[in-house]
Amino acid sequence: MLTTFLLIIVFAGLVLSAWRFLDHRADREVMHRLMFMQPVQPACFDPGMTADLPEPARRYFLYTIEPGTPLYRAAKISMSGRFGMGSRAKPGYLPMTATQILAMPAGFIWKMRARRGFMTISGSDSESWTRFWLMGLLPVVRMGGDPNHARSAFGRYVAEAVFWTPAAVLPGPGVAWEQVDTDCARLTVRHQNLVQSVDITVAPDGQPTRVCFDRWSNANPEKQHRLQPFGGYLSEFQSFTGFRLPTHVEAGNHFGTDHYFPFFVANVTDVLFK
């Protein structure tokens, strides 16, 4: 009996290890696919490209992209910070490190590892899946592959393109801007059967200070998918290859309400475009 039990444990460990290996391989494949979408010889930014935009949007682009900057649309972002596993009352923050490839509108992948003491949570989030493992051995979250997930993920990476890959949201096919008020512009992106609008608030010099949008999400007590406010704050801007980008981002569900919980607190350590 003991031998049989040990064999079962060994077999289960081998199956889980193989499963985890396949997840890692899928992550690498998506990262490579997205980075190969980077234009090899992109056009360079000319302030005249923004001439027909609403004033807050024009201000935003003139702040975030220096004249003459190659308009790279995909980025590799390295970050550290905190990831909340709880609620507003009990955030349950875990220190985390992550790498993200962002290539709007095609997709994104965020590969994260969080740890507290001996407990680790690792995995990835993308336009196709959300997959996390406990201690690298036990699958604790497996979601995706359905319209709800695709719609929710699209909201995330359209919003993140605003502050980490501004060249990807310059006006063009599927990308439109409108004015909301003196210091706020609304971006709307259409890709395949998905549509997402994001509001960007800018300072007098054009620095984006906050983003907010209605996100398709089931992060509510009923666990039902519906549109609800999501957003966050941007700060500590630095220059990366001609782009002026935030290196501190706080974001979460129910933005602008008493239930706002910034479960994502990130400090960017590098942004690579080449």
Report on this model:
The protein is an alpha+beta fold and 274 residues long. The chain has one domain: outer membrane lipoprotein receptor (LolB), chain A (Clam), CATH 2.50.20. It is built from three helices and 13 strands; from the N terminus they run ααββββββαβββββββ. It has helices spanning 2-35, 55-64, 147-164, and strands at residues 75-84, 93-103, 107-116, 119-126, 129-134, 138-144, 175-181, 184-191, 194-202, 208-217, 226-240, 243-253, 261-272. The protein has a 13-stranded antiparallel sheet with strand order 6-5-4-3-2-1-13-12-11-10-9-8-7, with helices on both faces. It is globular, with a radius of gyration of 20 Å. The termini are far apart. The relative contact order is 0.15.
What would a concise description of this structure say?
By secondary structure, this protein is an alpha+beta fold.
Task: Describe this protein with a few key phrases.
274 residues, outer membrane lipoprotein receptor (LolB), chain A, 3 helices, alpha+beta, 45% strand, 13-stranded antiparallel β-sheet, 13 strands
Residue runs with pLDDT of under 50 for 5 or more positions? none
General form: globular
CATH topology: outer membrane lipoprotein receptor (LolB), chain A
Rg is 20 Å
Question: Mind summarizing the main beta sheet?
Answer: 13 strands, antiparallel
Helix content: 10-25%
Strand content: over 45%
Terminal Cα span: 57 Å
Number of helices: 3
Spatial ordering of strands, largest sheet: 6-5-4-3-2-1-13-12-11-10-9-8-7
**Structural class, please?**
alpha+beta
Q: How much is the average pLDDT?
A: 94
- Total domains, how many? 1
Task: Tell me the name of the CATH homologous superfamily.
Answer: Lipoprotein localisation LolA/LolB/LppX
DSSP strand tally: 13
**Secondary-structure element series:** HHEEEEEEHEEEEEEE
Q: In CATH, what is the class? A: Mainly Beta
Q: What would CATH call the architecture?
A: Clam
